[in-house]
Design the sequence.
């Protein structure tokens, strides 16, 4: 099956710093989503981005489908950005059978 | 516009009891998915259902686990004779019909087996 790897596995930032999270996948995909799992365990949709670039406030994401990777950019990080960031892909099943990556655990300190 | 609703948020069961987890999809969504997240791991697909039909259950354990999405009412994930290894967070997601669409997740049910 498809492999989804994220890097780095852990990241510690000072408040205000910028960061880039990476998601590599081993096969072509129909769908790619980024999620933030906050410290209370809730999964929050960040981006639905099978290709191209999107921005939402301090967050932006780029997926280069032909090269099988996606990047999530966090600018001017805040303590509320702490948590685990997952990318998840759907391998052309025709529905949302998502395969989740290994996650990047982010801690933003004040 | 309510999101995906799961209940209960927390569930404690003794070994050997049954656990029932409920999920109501977003309005207008006819596809429901269940995922399991073991401690310190990512989410793993369990089952995909449409109304009255199980479409893909390739991620479901072969025994003790079952899922349904009746014509009326929420989707139910049922775990019979729970064991300690079933302790996990169970998430439900929903999406509109068709592929290439975004899935939205509920807040999850955290099952603890004691």
Sequence:
């Amino acid at each position: 099956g498809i492999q989804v790897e994220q890097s780095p596995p852990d990241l510690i930032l000072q408040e205000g710093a910028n960061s880039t999270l990476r998601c590599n996948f081993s096969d072509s995909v129909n769908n790619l989503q980024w999620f933030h799992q906050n410290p209370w365990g809730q999964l929050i949709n960040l981006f639905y981005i099978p290709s191209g670039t999107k921005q939402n406030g301090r967050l932006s994401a780029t997926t280069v489908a032909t090269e099988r990777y996606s990047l999530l950019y966090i600018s001017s990080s805040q303590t509320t950005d702490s948590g685990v960031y997952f990318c998840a892909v759907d391998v052309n099943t025709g529905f949302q059978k998502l395969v989740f990556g290994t996650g990047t655990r982010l801690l933003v300190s004040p | 516009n309510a999101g995906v609703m799961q209940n209960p948020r927390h569930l404690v069961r003794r070994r050997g009891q049954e656990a029932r987890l409920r999920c109501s999809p977003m309005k207008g969504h006819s596809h429901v998915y269940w995922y399991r997240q073991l401690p310190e791991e990512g989410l793993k697909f369990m089952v995909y259902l449409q109304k009255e039909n199980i479409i893909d259950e390739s991620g479901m354990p072969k025994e003790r686990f079952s899922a349904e999405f009746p014509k009326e009412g929420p989707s139910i994930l049922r775990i019979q004779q729970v064991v300690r290894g079933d302790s996990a967070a169970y998430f439900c997601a929903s999406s509109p019909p068709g592929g290439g669409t975004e899935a939205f997740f509920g807040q999850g049910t955290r099952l603890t087996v004691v």
